[in-house]
Amino acid sequence: MSIQVENIRKSFGAFTALHDISLDVPTNQLVGLLGPSGSGKTTLLRIIAGLERADSGRVRFNNEDVTHLDARRRRVGFVFQQYALFRHLTVADNIAFGLRLLPRAERPSRGDIRDRVRDLLSLVQLDNLARRYPAQLSGGQKQRVALARALALKPEVLLLDEPFGALDAKVRKDLRRWLRRLHEQISVTSIFVTHDQEEAMEVSDKVVVMSQGRVEQMGSPLQVYEQPASRFVFDFLGHINSLEGLYDGHNWRSGDAFLRLDTHGACPDGALTLYLRPHEADLAAAPTEAAHLPVRVAGRSVFGGTVTVELEPQGWGGEVLEVELDRVRWDALDPERHPALYLLPRRLQTVTCDGDLGPQVAPA
Amino acid sequence: MPRYWHQWALIAAAFAAVILMLVLPLALILQQAFAQGVAPVLEALSSSDMGHAIRLTLVVAAITVPVNLLFGILLAWCVTHYEFRGRKLLTTLIDIPFAMSPVVAGLCYLVVYGSQSLLGQWLSDWNVQLMFALPGMVMVTIFVSCPYVARVLIPLMQSQGQDEEEAAVLMGASGWQVFWYVTLPKIRWALLYGVVLTNARAVGEFGAVSVVSGLIRGETLTLPLLIQMLHEDYNTVGAFTAAGLLAAMALITLLLKTVLEWRQRV
Asked: Residues in domain ABC transmembrane type-1 (chain B) (predicted)?
């Protein structure tokens, strides 16, 4: 079932949570709503579910208007951040809850309900926990029970509100891969809310980046990362280093440092900020003709095959920079003996003085 | 575990205070009641005044508790499920019966519904007598004990949030099904706790009931009022027997409350 959101607006008192949001989610896609807290992503999810009413705009499922349809008749599966399991019911009874409430004509027989619960439990890999109470489960198990419960009525729309928000890092990683695989097994259109960039990138077919009640960009994970539509999107997707300086049409300068940049006239002379992603730079013992950015190593942390290096600019700029290098490359630099190094950016994102994104450039 | 002598001393002082001020008086009540043996106690228990007082007390409690149960649930539901103007004011107003002296409450009812008032006049024209009769006693008892259920439920319902209710709605539950299958099981122990407290207050209420009852022997005397009456008559055995009965009810209540508090934590 496809989901269309058209011109949704919502305010709470004087605070506008959503300004004119429109989205289109094709059938069986998994879409991640990504944004910082307060960006309106949960409100949007709740409006799609019918738990919240929009001030204006429409929600359609398969082009059928459900804007005024009661939440209990929308037949969406919903997974809450804090699971919202019924604490007085066992895992099996939690999952069977919706089935037992069906009107007599639609309600499966007792045996069928039991079979359906068993199938769902095996789908979420919790076959042995049917008789447990929610209080006896771990966070990850609760989350899977919540998912099984949401799927019990075979919804065509599945909505998940920060589904992994309350779990620790390791469990979170396992669960989101598992969700991705599960989504490929069953046919359901899903929207999930997250503030975790990695999670959105890994799980979603499409990412919707939101900020202050507006959609900043919608696209595949690769698209929003490689071609961010706004400064906010660039900023929000991973760590960035911000280099402030002056541009004269050929060179960017800041103190002793310079970069030779050809922007093909896209950047006017004057103040020019450059964004540098930590993994899009190298270090060398000597500067090049195009890049002269002296730095000193201020600290490093090794994790797996990657070394994260903190660099203090020498004679330019201000704040400490962060660069990620391959471990082999780092060892070859031998920074113990050569602490004075030069930063060599491979790709930079230009930001004009009025805050718009300019072209992406490389020193040459 | 306490480690220093002064910590032990503090604990000892607390125990001494509890024994002196709570346990001893209770024991004395029983001792006084049975001072002349079991026979006078049994006789006092079988007197018609005592029987009537016990029945009246139970009738008042039997009406008060369900009324306040319903009222408390509705109020707590309103305050925790809806945002509306005056919500804070309402939660403050709930506490009036706690803050006000019960005697004052009784007098208020007397002024509003008594035969001196316009409303009382009008009611008496229709042959309805509220004051100095069972209806008035029930009304003031409801008034003084109405905050308990709501007071127990509101913080609990606030802390539990509405996620489970919303989850139930999304699975197709109607309002009534949500209340019956989700909300009620969530609050059941707290609710019982509120009922126990309400009942204790309804059974033991003296001040407000005393004002509106008119103290008519054999008609409007509940157990607490009877105790006062017997005591004034120098009927020591009778007074202490009734007192022992009330104390026993209180102890049972206390036991129930402890059990419920323990269940609630599980």
From this structure: 54-264
